[in-house]
Amino acid sequence: MRLLTIVEAAELLRLSPVTVRKMRCEGRLPGALRIGGRALFDASALEAHVRAKAREFAASKGQAISLSDD
Fold first, then answer.
1. What is this structure's pTM?
2. How far apart are CA 36 and CA 29, in angstroms?
3. Do residues 67 and 56 lie in contact, with contact meaning Cβ atoms separated by under 8 Å?
4. pLDDT for 44-67, tens place per residue?
5. Beta-carbon neighbour count of residue 31 at 10 Å?
6. What confidence score (pLDDT) does residue 67 get?
């Protein structure tokens, strides 16, 4: 399991760290852990979340999507 900090997760998701913190607090991001008082994210859970959201968006637009990690 590869763990990411909030800043690293924000870079992966192309969001600001503030947005990632807010989404974590709201329970909108998977794979969030607290270890030693630090918020960390399971990288594979975030990547799967991004793929699922991309498929969901494409389906809502009636498009097919091909992701290289599938």
1. 0.80
2. 20
3. no
4. 999 999 999 988 888 888 876 666
5. 19
6. 65
